[in-house]
Amino acid sequence: MTTALAIGQPTDRVDGRHKVTGGAQYSADLLLTGMAYAVLVGAGVPSGRVTGIDSAEALQADGVLTVLTHENLPKIAGQPPLIPSLAGMPAPGQTFFPFQDEVVHYTGQPVAMVVADTWERAQHAAALVRVSYQETPSVTTLDQARDEAYEPEAVFGGFVPGRSTRGDVAAGLAKADVRIDAVFSYAANNHNPIEPSATTAAWDGDQLTLHDATQGVAATQLTVAALLGLTPSKVRVISHYVGGSFGCKAMIWAHPALAALAAREVGRPVKLSLTREQMFTSVGHREEQEQRLTLGADKEGRLTALRHHKLSPTSHFDDWAEPSLGVASQFYACDNYEGVYRLIRAHTMTPTFMRAPGEASGMFALESTMDDLAHELGIDPIELRLRNFTDTDPTTGNPWSSSGLKECYQRGAERFGWHRRNPEPRSHRDGHLLIGYGMAGAGYPGYGPSNPQRARARLYSDGTAVVQAATPEFGTGVATVMTQVAADALGLPVERCRFEGGDTMLPTIAAAVGSSGAGMISAAVHTAATNLRRQLVAQAVADAQSPLHGADPDAVTVRDGRMILRDAPDTGETYVELLHRNFLPDAEAVGAWSPSPESTRYGKMTFGAQFAEVAVDPGLGLARVRRMVGAFAPGRVLNPKTARSQLMGGMLWGLGQALLEANYMDPRRGRWVASSLGDYLVPVNADAPEVEVELVDVTDEIINPLGVKGVGEVGQVGAAAAIANAVHHATGRRVRKLPITLEDLL
Ligand code: MOS
Fold first, then answer.
1. Is 290 a residue of the active site?
2. Rounded distance from Cα 86 to ligand 1 centre (Å)
3. Do residues 407 and 633 touch, judged by C-beta distance below 8 A?
4. Fold adopted by 16-22+449-594
5. Measured from the CA of 248, which atom of ligand 1 is nearest?
6. Mean pLDDT, residues 475-480 taken together
7. What is the pLDDT of residue 21?
8. pLDDT at 1 over 50
9. DSSP string, 296-344
10. Catalytic-labelled residue, pool 195, 290, 338, 713
11. What is the pLDDT of residue 2?
């Protein structure tokens, strides 16, 4: 007798019906008795001082309860340090909090907050607040301040050093037979989840409850507690459904604390929802950037040197850059390397995580340049990559916990039909269209949480189970896959298990960022559910009335809720029988997981390979992607349906990065040019080609108990490079900027 395991099945989303029938309640859907609505007024200049705020007219408008500014809003208690939320610590989006004084650091910085009895009345009154400024000169683009660039000690919340080297890059370049030196420029990007950020705050005495759209309820709890000078036990954060995030709800920006402050001021619950326009100035962005990549190689294409420099604007208060030099420094065997981040201070908010943070932009530079090298040496691009393959992490010398990269190249190439490619640019046509095939490697690091991740499992005497962990479901499928993990660990059918999350009252899990969610949460849930199964088996073998009395616990297994002897499956009893006989309504266990010390001796990376076919209309300069194939080796696949959706979403995001997504600062006004989905283009179904995802099996015994490596980010890495390489193959033109637009191809 065997029972099919739940893990690995393409189980439908447990929250799917709720989502499509409108039953899912998002933070902004919540209605509380007596609730008021806050609307933010953003600064209209990028730099200077507020010289006056005239609230008189707004205060007289119907339904207005108060207008809060730096003159009357209580000051914050203190600002916690800026630490990426994967650490399980407070994670403020920036170390600047508005309303503390009259200084303006960026356009859109909140300078007033109107609270009224309806959202429409608050919106109307916000338009009546008159703010005057003394404007000072601003810098908002790289071009305005290249000469003032500085080298920071560290970026990315202090987690990534400003400079890293190995070997001797000058010597490596000197001995190279081929050298390529290329500069890449990138437009800024904004996240645009369907659900704009929103927080509802309610006080009950000194106890604060926040309903917040967040990737990590503990990150919101700890950040708001620090800002308001509260102990975390006084702050509960609930986040049952999040309508997409992609990094902009990973760090905690000002609005949750502002909602709490406003609620305290008016003595009513307050809802604060950002408008779509405010999403462009309130939750970080992927920074504008320039990357210079210099590589040297011998005649066979083996890398002798790699130099990768990045220049990007950050805010006036934080040294933040997305870690673009990470995977690109680890992907190939190369003894001589130098990576340097340089920053300029700009009148913008602090940039932040955005899907495939850092690696989506860094690997565009590396993988475009590898394509140039292949072309110059007349080596097939896949063969060139195999010649530079590394089975250790070159930054540490540690072996990968698992790889699968070679199989990704091979299986992706087969599925795509790479062998049909004539390497000569402009050699494939379809009528007047130029057809191109391109490929690129992909990788995303396996970040591990630094704090223990916890979960709880409870079995009821009706034979159903619930597993709980604080993590929100932000669209990734976590509730579904954790139900599957619990079912297998408990030996129950998946229909009898359910997952509860999104509440700081539940066991603590760090924010799910950097593709870490499935790995760290499954580890905690698996541990908790396994502990509960062991506890029940121990109870049965100790129970004189159990058919399993006196058995070796290790000889007992559980199938379909029945504890049985592995070698004599007729001997046993159900969980339900055990609980009933002992008058127990339920049984419960907790589980905690941290990465093992041994795992630090391994490099951790999800690898993949991307392939794209484009058709370019040479008369119009229009590039369309016809086909994308991605092969990925993400370790254990908990649910192939949700994993494919994540990877497909990442690949399509890469298409957007390659051809559509861009925001630019207008340097005269210091404002973003795009502030709506009408100006900021993301791929829609009409842009979406056939996307095929190939899952390559690899076993990883190091990374976490179930060997799960994560799929949230890697789908985007390399996708833009594969498209740009296909554009080069189609047209003979190497475009080193993102996005690639009509004028680049005319
Ligand atoms: Mo991911 S961009 O770290 O939410």
1. no
2. 10
3. yes
4. Aldehyde Oxidoreductase; domain 4 (3.30.365)
5. 4
6. 95
7. 95
8. no
9. EE-TT--EEEEEEEEEEEE-SS------TTHHHHHSS--S-EEEEEEEE
10. 713
11. 44
